[in-house]
Design brief:
Elements: H1 2-8, H2 11-22, E1 25-26, H3 27-34, H4 38-50, E2 54-59, E3 62-67, H5 70-83, H6 86-125, H7 131-142, E4 148-153, H8 159-164, E5 168-175, H9 178-191, E6 196-199, E7 212-218, H10 227-236, E8 238-249, H11 257-260, H12 270-279, E9 282-290, E10 297-304
Parallel strand pairs: 4-5, 4-7, 5-6, 7-8
Antiparallel strand pairs: 1-3, 2-3, 8-10, 9-10
Helix pairs in contact: 2-6, 3-4, 3-6, 6-9, 10-12
Length: 315
């Protein structure tokens, strides 16, 4: 306990915690807001991480910081809110103003990326029913109840968290691409939705066993070399009674999508998907086909009855 409080006994480190209270930030972004060099900021971050006040996640050449578990950090914020004097409050307010420039830069970067890739995405969307119809079907499949801990695998731009994060007590987005995670952060920052975004592999998720109540794979599985293994890994992090929802294409013969859009699998048969669910300890309770274009979008939903998988720590 003494070591923990000693780690907090520095105005810069208190500023770091207050900034991370607002949003996940990279080392470079923190240095920008604090007006300090990255090496100096990194030293402060190491002290806070060693004390268990924050967590560090590497994404490519970037390192992102997020607060530790709320049970550990909420009492700290209550103490800060109670004891902060006028001088430190003014410093926090100045940091918050500079933080807005980080939000703006993220939004601008996301806009540039979307504009550059809009034509490709529009081409794929033109082959199936309207995205709004797909999203309504997803909402219907998930229901209106509390989703608990929601994990969105292959989160991409964070659209699923944007839609369903407000129904969850905790939202976690995982993607292999650090660029996509930066885009998702920019989008979710503008909506005010709190989420933990992490870089990870679909076959080795950076999560412990049975942590999730709801897992979504939205238009992800057709990029997987081993979709059965991806389904099994999604089931591993799902708790007993939890729901797995996969949204992808039904089997088709648009072979050119392998070349133009890097699709590895040309959709999936219901029987094959049902077998993968069963092998992972899940019972399929809903299959819905959304026709209306050259490609049919299918929703497969399953429930994990028991926790039968081998337990292991997060990758």
């Amino acid at each position: 306990m003494a070591d923990f409080f000693q780690a907090l006994a520095d105005s810069t480190r208190l500023r770091v915690l207050m900034l991370l209270r607002e949003m996940e930030l990279s080392v470079g972004e923190l240095a920008q807001v604090l007006g300090q060099s990255q090496p100096r900021v990194s030293r402060h971050l190491k002290i806070l991480a060693d004390a268990g006040a924050l967590e560090r996640r590497k994404e490519g050449s970037w390192v992102f910081l997020t607060l530790a578990d709320a049970l550990r950090t909420d009492p700290v914020f209550a103490l800060i809110d109670t004891l902060a004097d006028g001088e430190i409050k003014n410093l926090f307010r100045s940091d918050a103003v500079r933080l807005e420039s980080v939000r703006a830069e993220r939004t601008q970067a996301a806009t540039r990326y979307f504009e550059a890739h809009a034509a490709v995405w529009d081409q794929i969307r033109s082959l199936h029913v309207a995205e709004s119809e797909v999203e309504r079907a997803i909402a219907d499949a998930l229901g209106s109840a509390d989703l608990g801990c929601l994990v969105d695998i292959g989160t991409g731009t964070g659209r699923m968290i944007e839609l369903f994060g407000p129904q969850a007590s905790q939202a976690i987005g995982i993607d292999r691409s650090s660029e996509m995670l930066r885009l998702a952060r920019a989008k979710l920052d503008t909506t005010g939705i709190r989420a933990s975004l992490r870089q990870g592999d679909i076959y080795a998720l950076p999560l412990p066993d049975e942590v999730a109540d709801c897992v979504i794979l939205h238009q992800v599985l057709h990029y997987a070399h081993s979709p059965a293994a991806a389904v099994a890994e999604a089931a591993r992090v799902l708790g007993a009674g939890g729901t797995l929802l996969i949204v992808d294409f039904a089997a088709h013969e648009r072979e050119e999508l392998r070349e133009t859009d890097a699709h590895i699998r040309l959709g999936f048969e219901d029987e094959v998907m049902t077998d993968w669910f069963a092998s992972a300890g899940l019972q399929v309770d809903r299959v819905q086909h959304l026709e209306g274009g050259e490609l049919t979008v299918t929703l497969w939903r399953g429930v994990k009855a028991t926790a039968t998988l081998t337990r292991r720590k997060a990758a």
